[in-house]
Specification:
The complex is a heterodimer of chains A (412) and B (265). Chain A is of the alpha+beta class and 412 residues long. Chain A is 34% helix and 30% strand. The longest helix of chain A is centred in the last third of the chain and has 29 residues. The chains are: A alpha+beta (412), B mainly alpha (265). At the A-B interface, α4, β14, β17 and α8 of A face α6 and α7 of B. Bound molecules: protoporphyrin IX containing FE (HEM). Protoporphyrin IX containing FE (HEM) sits at the interface of chains A and B.
Chain lengths: 412, 265
C-alpha cells in the first residue's frame, strides 16, 4: 500500500489531529482541575440538567444534519476521533482503576490534580462531552435517512449515548441515604456517607424485627502462639453436624452431637433453648493415638463465654458460621397514608413510591443478636432512561452476534 | 475433595495429552482422526462431570473463587479449539487450548483450595450464574482470539500468508465482545438489585469497563481503514487487560475497599 504522507491539518483530518485534539482536552481538564485545587465539578440537578442535556442533544443532531459535508464536522463525527476519545477514556479509567478513589486528604497532589476523584474530574467530563458529541454526530448520519440495515448501528450507538449521558447528567439527582433503625422503633432520618447531619425522608420506616441466619458453625484448630488457624488434612471447612469428622496431624475429631440453639445446663450438659437466646453446642470425641476424650464446645455469644477444648498448646474451637441471610421486617409509611409491609433482604429490595429500600447491614459486633438494621433508601429518577439504553445495547448485541455468525458463513 | 480433584484433573490432562499426540499422528494416518477427537473431547467431559459433581457437593455453583472459575475455563477452552477446527478447518488452535486448560488445572493442583460451602448473601441471586457464565464464556473466546492473534503474528514474522487465521481471531474477538457487553450489563442490573446502584466505579467494574473499551477500540479500528494484519498485535495484547481484570485487580492498591474481588483461598 502506497502511503501518501499527509501534512498536519491538511484535510481530510485523521488520527494525528484526533490524538492532538484529545490530548489537548485532557490536558486542559487537568489544568482546570489544578487551578480549582481539585474541586471537581458539580452538576446541576433536575430540571436544569435535563434541559442542558436536551439542548446538547439538539445541538449535536442539528450540526450533524446541517453540516454533514463540512470536513471538520465529518472529522468530528468520525472513527479516528472516536478511537482517540475511547483511548482517552480508557486511560483516565486506568488511573481510576489503579489510584484508590476518594482515599487521600484534600491537600495532596492526587487530590489537587483530580486523580483521586477521576470520574467526577474535569478531564473526564471534557472527554465524555467530546465523546458524546462525536458519537452523536456519527449517529445523526445513520439516523437520517433511516435505513433498516442501520438498525444494529443505531441500537448500539444510541443505546450507549442514552445510557452514558443519562447516567452522568443524572448522577446529581441520585439520592442514597442510610437509615439506621432499632427494633420496635421507626425512623425517617437518612444519612449520607459524607455527612453526619441527617436528612428528613418523605416517609418513615418501622422495624418490627431483624433476623439473621448463619451457616452451621465451623470446627477449627487454633494455635494461640502464632494466632493462626490450622488447616485440617482434607482442606475443607468443617461444618458442624452430627457425624462430621475432621483430622489434623495425629488427631481425629468426631462430632457426636450438635445442638444449634442451646444454653449451659447442669453438669456441663447444654440444654436445648429458644433460637433467640441459644447458641450452638457440639459434643465432640477427640482421639489422639489411643487416648480418647469427649467434651462439649460452643461458640459463645455476646453474653456467654465460648467453650473450647484444650489440646496441649492448641485449642479446638467452634466458630459461628458466616451469615447466610439476614432480613428486616418493616412497615414503610408516608404522611399521605401510603403504607407497605415488607421483608427487606439482600438482593431483594422493595419499592415504595419512587424510592427503593435495601437491606444494607446490621450491628456486626452483635451478629445474630443485632437489634439494629441499616436500611439504604435510594431514589434515581434517571434510572428508566439508563435502562432503556442498556436494553438497546443488548438488542444491538443480539443482532451483532447473529450477523457476525451469518457473515462468517457467507465468507467461508 | 483434593483426592477427587487431582484424579479428575490428571485424567483430563491425560486425555488431552493422548488426544493431542494422536492428532499429530493422524496427519500421517487419517484413520486416527476420530479416536484423537473422541479422546481429546473426553478431557473436557471429565472436567464438566467434575464441575457437576463439585456443584452438588458444595450445594452452590462453584463460581465463587478464582480456583473454581479455573475449573470452568479448563472445561470450556478446549471446546473453542474443537469448534474452530470444525468450523474453519484450523487445527492448531486446539493444541494451544488444551495446553492452556492443562495449565489452569496444574495451578489448581499446586494451590489446593479450601472446600467451603458458604455463599455470602450478595451472591445469592438469580443473576449470579448468568453474569459469571457469560463472562466466563467471553473470556474463553477472547483468550482463544488472543492465542490465535499471537500465532498470526508469528506467521507474519515468518512471512507466511494467513488470511484464515486473521478471520478466526477477528470473529472470536467479535463474539467475545458481545459476551463482555452482556456480562457488563448483567452485572450492572444485578448491582442495582444487590447494592443499590448499577455503577459505582468499583475497581472491578472499572477494569471490566477497560477490557470492554479495549475490544471496542479493536472493532472500530478494524472497521476503519486499518490493515487487519497490523491489529493482530493489538488483539494479542488486549488479553493482558482482561487478565488484570480477572485476577490482577485483587492486587491493585485501588482494590482494598472493593466489594467484589474474588474470594482468596
Ligand atoms: C466514539 C464514538 C463512536 C463512533 C464515532 C463510532 C462509529 C462507528 C462506525 C462509523 C461504525 C461502522 C458502522 C458501519 O459501517 O455500519 C461503527 C461500528 C460499530 N460500533 Fe461504533 N462508534 C462509536 C462508539 C461505539 C460504542 C460506544 C459502541 C458500543 C456500545 C459501539 C459499537 C459498535 C459496534 C458493535 C460496531 C460494529 C462493528 C463491526 O461491524 O465490526 N460504537 N461505529
Amino acid at each position: 500500500m502506497a502511503v501518501v504522507r499527509r501534512r498536519w491539518f491538511q484535510t481530510p483530518w485523521e488520527f494525528k489531529e484526533s490524538v492532538l485534539f484529545t490530548a489537548a482536552a485532557v490536558v486542559a481538564g487537568f489544568l482546570i482541575e489544578l487551578a480549582t485545587s481539585g474541586s471537581g465539578l458539580a452538576l446541576p440537578r433536575l430540571p436544569v440538567n435535563a434541559i442542558a442535556l436536551s439542548l446538547f442533544a439538539t445541538l449535536v443532531l442539528s450540526i450533524g444534519l446541517g453540516f454533514r459535508n463540512t470536513p471538520v464536522v465529518e472529522w468530528f463525527g468520525g472513527i479516528p476521533l472516536g478511537l482517540s476519545l475511547i483511548f482517552a477514556i480508557a486511560l483516565l479509567s486506568l488511573i481510576g482503576g489503579i489510584v484508590p478513589q476518594g482515599a487521600v486528604s484534600s491537600g495532596s497532589l492526587a487530590a489537587q490534580s483530580g486523580i483521586n476523584h477521576i470520574f467526577s474530574s474535569w478531564p473526564f467530563a471534557l472527554t465524555i462531552i467530546l465523546f458524546l458529541a462525536n458519537l452523536g454526530l456519527s449517529l445523526s448520519w445513520k439516523l437520517v435517512p433511516f435505513k433498516m440495515k442501520n438498525i444494529q448501528f443505531i441500537l448500539f450507538h444510541a443505546g450507549f449515548w442514552i445510557a452514558l449521558s443519562c447516567g452522568i447528567f443524572g448522577s446529581s439527582d441520585l439520592q442514597r441515604l442510610i437509615v439506621p433503625i432499632e427494633e420496635g422503633k421507626a425512623s425517617n432520618l437518612g444519612y449520607t456517607m459524607e455527612s453526619d447531619t441527617p436528612q428528613h425522608l418523605p416517609f418513615s420506616v418501622f422495624l418490627h424485627d431483624f433476623s439473621l441466619e448463619e451457616y452451621p458453625p465451623q470446627l477449627l484448630l487454633y494455635d494461640p502462639h502464632s494466632d493462626k488457624l490450622l488447616m485440617n488434612k482434607s482442606q475443607a471447612i468443617i461444618e458442624v453436624r452430627k457425624g462430621a469428622t475432621a483430622s489434623w496431624m495425629g488427631l481425629e475429631v468426631l462430632v457426636l452431637d450438635y445442638i444449634p440453639f442451646a444454653l449451659p445446663g447442669q453438669k456441663g450438659i447444654p440444654q436445648p433453648a429458644d433460637r433467640s437466646t441459644g447458641i450452638p453446642y457440639a459434643k465432640i470425641r477427640i482421639s489422639a493415638g489411643s487416648v480418647q476424650r469427649e467434651t462439649w464446645i460452643s461458640t459463645g455469644s455476646p453474653v456467654l463465654k465460648p467453650d473450647a477444648a484444650a489440646l496441649g498448646n492448641l485449642f479446638l474451637i467452634l466458630v459461628p458460621g458466616t451469615p447466610k441471610s439476614f432480613r428486616s421486617a418493616v412497615t414503610v409509611q408516608d404522611n399521605q397514608s401510603h403504607e407497605v409491609m415488607a421483608n427487606l433482604e439482600v438482593n431483594k429490595p422493595v419499592t415504595f413510591m419512587d424510592w427503593k429500600l435495601y437491606q444494607m447491614g446490621y450491628d456486626e459486633k452483635a451478629g445474630r443478636w443485632s437489634k439494629l438494621s441499616l436500611v439504604e433508601v435510594i431514589r434515581d429518577p434517571w434510572l428508566p432512561a439508563v435502562y432503556l439504553g442498556f436494553f438497546m445495547i443488548m438488542a444491538g448485541n443480539i443482532l451483532f452476534f447473529w450477523n457476525g455468525i451469518k457473515r462468517t458463513e457467507s465468507a467461508s | 475433595m483434593i483426592m477427587n480433584f487431582n484424579t479428575a484433573a490428571l485424567l483430563a490432562i491425560a486425555c488431552w495429552t493422548i488426544g493431542a499426540l494422536l492428532s499429530l499422528f493422524a496427519r500421517r494416518t487419517p484413520s486416527l482422526k476420530i479416536p484423537a477427537f473422541v479422546i481429546s473431547f473426553s478431557g473436557a467431559l471429565v472436567m464438566a462431570a467434575f464441575i457437576a459433581f463439585y456443584w452438588s457437593l458444595l450445594d452452590r455453583p462453584p463460581l465463587r473463587t478464582l480456583g473454581e472459575t479455573r475449573l470452568w475455563y479448563a472445561a470450556l477452552i478446549p471446546l473453542v479449539g474443537f469448534l474452530v477446527e470444525y468450523r474453519w478447518k484450523i487445527e492448531w488452535l486446539k493444541f494451544y487450548c488444551m495446553g492452556l486448560a492443562t495449565f489452569f488445572l496444574v495451578i489448581n493442583m499446586l494451590h489446593p483450595e479450601v472446600f467451603d460451602k458458604t455463599l455470602m448473601p450478595a451472591l445469592q441471586s438469580p443473576w449470579f450464574i448468568p453474569h459469571v457464565i457469560v463472562y466466563l464464556v467471553g473470556y474463553v473466546l477472547l483468550a482463544a482470539s488472543s492465542v490465535t492473534a499471537l500465532h498470526n503474528v508469528y506467521m507474519q514474522v515468518r512471512h507466511k500468508g494467513n488470511d484464515a487465521g486473521e478471520a478466526v481471531s477477528h470473529y472470536l474477538a467479535l463474539l467475545g465482545f458481545v459476551l463482555l457487553s452482556f456480562g457488563l450489563i448483567f452485572g450492572a442490573l444485578w448491582a442495582k438489585e444487590a447494592w443499590g446502584h448499577y455503577w459505582t466505579w468499583d475497581p472491578k467494574e472499572t477494569w471490566a469497563f477497560l477490557s470492554w473499551l479495549a475490544y471496542l477500540g479493536y472493532l472500530h479500528a478494524f472497521r476503519y481503514k486499518i490493515d487487519s494484519s497490523k491489529l493482530q498485535w493489538y488483539l494479542a495484547l488486549a488479553f493482558v487487560v482482561l487478565l488484570v481484570c480477572w485476577f490482577g485487580v485483587n492486587y491493585l492498591p485501588s482494590a482494598q475497599n472493593s466489594v467484589h474481588t474474588y474470594t482468596q483461598s
